[in-house]
Structure formats: C-alpha cells, structure tokens
Amino acid sequence: MEKKDLLDIGHFSDFLKPAQIIHDLKSRDKVEAIEELLDILAKQKLIRNRKLILTRLIDRENLVSTALGEGIAVPHARVNTGGTIAIAVGRSSAGIDFEAVDKKPVRLIILIVWNPQLPGLFNHLFAGLASFLHRPEYRERIFAAKDKAELYEILSEIELRLPQEDRIVSRASLLGKLQEIEIKRKKAPKAQQKVLQAQATLIREELDEALLLRFDKFMARYGFAVAEVEDGACKSCNISVSTEMSSAIEGTNDIYVCENCGKYLVAAKKKKK
Prior knowledge:
Layout: E1 21-22, H1 30-43, H2 50-63, E2 67-69, E3 72-73, E4 76-78, E5 85-96, E6 106-114, H3 121-133, H4 136-143, H5 148-155, H6 172-187, H7 190-204, H8 209-222, E7 226-230, E8 233-234, H9 243-250, E9 256-257, E10 264-267
Parallel strand pairs: 1-5, 3-6, 4-6, 7-10
Antiparallel strand pairs: 2-3, 5-6, 7-8, 9-10
C-alpha cells in the first residue's frame, strides 16, 4: 500500500484479510500465541525477519503488557516489515493470560507490526480499535463469532480515524513507564545505562513526536511529566479534575492532560492491600 493512500483508509479491513485471521488459536500462553500469529504473517509473506520481529514483540510485552483489559490484547512492534504494516488477529475460546491489569484472560489478540518510517500509523489504527473495542456489545459479538468469516465481517466494521488533539490515543501506562525509566537513568550506574536506554528507545519508537516533545520538555523543567489522578485530583498541582475526566482516566489507557499544570494524567496505581 502506497504511503499517499494512508489518509484515505477508512476501515480496519484495508489492512486485514481473512487469511490473516485465526478463529480458534491453539496456543495456551502469550508467547506461543504471538508465534502462531507471526506464522500466519510469514505464510502470507507479509513479514520478513520473523526472529527479529518476535524478539521485539516479546521485549515490548515484557516492558508493559499490551493487554487492554476486557479480554483484548494488541501486541505490537515498530519493525520494518518490508511493506507498510502487517496485522494478524487470533481469537481464543479458552483465553490466554496476558498479565492484564483487570486480570481477565485475553480472548482476542490483534498483532500489529508497522514500518519505522510511519511513526503515526499505529496511533491512527489504535484510535479506531480502542473506540470500537471499548463497547461491550462489539466485544461480545467478536467473542461469540462462530467462524473466521463472521469474525472478519465484525472486524471490518472498525473505522479508522486520527486521534483527537485533546485526547492523545496511546498507552498511558507506557508513557508512565518511560518516565520511570528516565528517572532511573539519572541515578543508574554506567553498567545499567545501556539496558535502560534500550528500554526507553523501545517505548519512544511507538509514541508520536509531538507527545514526546511535550514529555521531554516537562522532564527537563520539572523532573517529571506524568502525574497520577488520585481522589479526583492531579497529584502534580493538587487541583481537582472534572468528574467526567476522572472517570474516563480510571477506565482507559488513553492519555489526558491536566488543564491546570499541563502534565499528562494517568490513573493512580492501585495500592496493595
């Protein structure tokens, strides 16, 4: 697919064909499931360097789980596929442990590998996926799909759109992890710097440039750029956020911005009992 055509893409099916879908995954753990989906992409000649891509996917998964909650996971990596993007979808009847925040087993896996020359493409895809999969009625239809044809038909309904400016679609937990790594790098001994740099690079490769510019600006000025919302207030400036925003942050992995101090807002980590 030509780069000039990307702005004209309107549906998920522009990237996904029936041959890239596994209706009933045989795998019972996430690494095996990722390998099973990569085999499909390799068979369709949509990827090359399978071993490299598998390593990147697992490295990314070990950094922060790609499970979105509610039985959905989107493992992904920014690696040259030889084309624009490669997608495979697998449905699991039994469910697979992806270490999701909500502890629910994953029943739908959407694996995405995209070209490094197109850094904004993943957010374009993720915006459409998140909007569609957030709705319980669509998830239930997917989980109940009787065969590959029905599953493909449902997924073809997903419309793709660019993220809204006031609500940057990206993994909030991923940006929080980047902050954690950057803070560690300032104090870490030289022996650990290489590992931390590699982890930071892995995260930065899938985040939009505009988001990172703002992140780096706040990190340089204040030492942190991401603040938790606890008891309805931003922990950076202690100013209350709207009830609507507070509820939205609690139930999503999207990133919101504090209207008072400008920090990126994420849900507070649940305290261990």
